[in-house]
Amino acid sequence: MVHAHDDHAEGGAELSEMQIRVRALESILVEKGYVDPAALDLLIETYEVKVGPRNGARVVAKAWTDPAYHEWLLADGGQAIASLGYTGRQGENMVVLENTAQVHNMVVCTLCSCYPWPVLGLPPVWYKSAAYRSRAVADPRGVLRDFGVELPQGTEIRVWDSTAEVRYLVVPMRPAGTDGWSEDELARLVTRDSMIGTGLPTSPQEATR
To answer: Which of 17, 48, 61, 161 is most buried, taking the most CB atoms under 10 A from its CB?
Structure first.
């Protein structure tokens, strides 16, 4: 879903062809009275700010601090996530993957842009792009490098393809130096990209800058 008011975002970058089409369609629907701009803005704000990706960050932080919840999350992601109140369309069937020093998981949707909205909010533009959807499968290490993530050669990279039936959430490795941190403090380190597998959590050093 592309918000038609994104033309002022990211340093005034020009709209893509798709964004131009979406903006034109929204303008027509507003003019004909089919869409209330205020209601649309509220919907977008809900998914961008209130729904996610802060919800996912709370899930990850709880998994880092609560061994019982961690075990439940990996065994039955959908129910464990729902227990925190994060439910909704496109979040019904969740599978949770855990990154370790040996295995790094990354999520893509090769056919379209299936994405767990209840825990991550709106999908980023690059997630929906043909370039990411094809390269993530063919050259995952190269894609990670483009995102600034350089993994040891010995780390196995597993790419998971989301579908209309199953969506994924990645639990990244907990940053070192966070022993004794509260869930609230840890949640602030969890980035959206780290829950897709294209990034890493913020380090404690970066968080205090």
So the answer is: 61
